[in-house]
Amino acid sequence: MARNQRTRVKHIDALLDPEEVRALLSELCAKLGFCLPPIELQRMATSPPRDIDEFTRAILVADGYGVATSDPLYNRIRELVAQAFIDHQSRSVD
Known about the structure:
The protein is an all-alpha fold. The protein has one domain (15-93). It contains five helices and no strands.
């Protein structure tokens, strides 16, 4: 995601539904190896953060990974989270 796109999606405030959260977490597990324990997956699905950056940090914390926004992995996770929020917004508008 280009830097200007990241800025553009920074302020999306959305409440992903549990199935969207599970799909996102499944994608993160398959693509990047961030596979949350079942209890964390359930917690995220029932009470997901409403902001892209909060959601990204919550995933990293739940997986026991330190949060460093300069880490390229953080940015890869954030891109997938941002796309899930964009997809949610586009479905909400339709």
